[in-house]
Amino acid sequence: MEALELVAGFGAKGDRHAGKDPDRAVLVAGLPSYEKAKGVGIQLPFGALGENLLLDLDPHNLPPGTRLRIGEALLEFSYVCTVCSSLSQFDLRLPKLLYGGRGLYARVLEGGLVRVGDPVRILVTAE
Fold this sequence. Notes:
Elements: E1 3-7, E2 11-12, E3 26-30, H1 31-39, E4 53-55, E5 67-70, E6 73-80, H2 94-97, E7 104-110, E8 112-115, E9 120-124
Parallel strand pairs: 3-4
Antiparallel strand pairs: 1-2, 1-8, 3-7, 5-6, 5-9, 6-7
GO molecular function, one term: molybdenum ion binding
InterPro entries: MoCF_Sase_C, MOSC_domain, Pyrv_Knase-like_insert_dom_sf
Protein name: MOSC domain-containing protein
């Protein structure tokens, strides 16, 4: 997918989870999660973690409350995504390996298009 449309207070257009909980509107994962899996021999296709957005940074280094501008959208991290057993379909070691490191949920404060390659600007880092 080359672009994703995010809707304020709703989530990613076309996502089956959108509109259910504004605090869980978007799941943001980072490349380090995929690299960690690869490091133990687990080859995951992008999207395997259920993420809406995959960033070339570790979102776990940014606490809940952090705001990011990505493309036209403004996001605010709400909380860490728990690892669910559905990840076992790829490898039984995966839920334990990525415990606390799957990604962060984010609220969509301002909607808009996010395109592959859009810069990520950290606007506010929560204390």
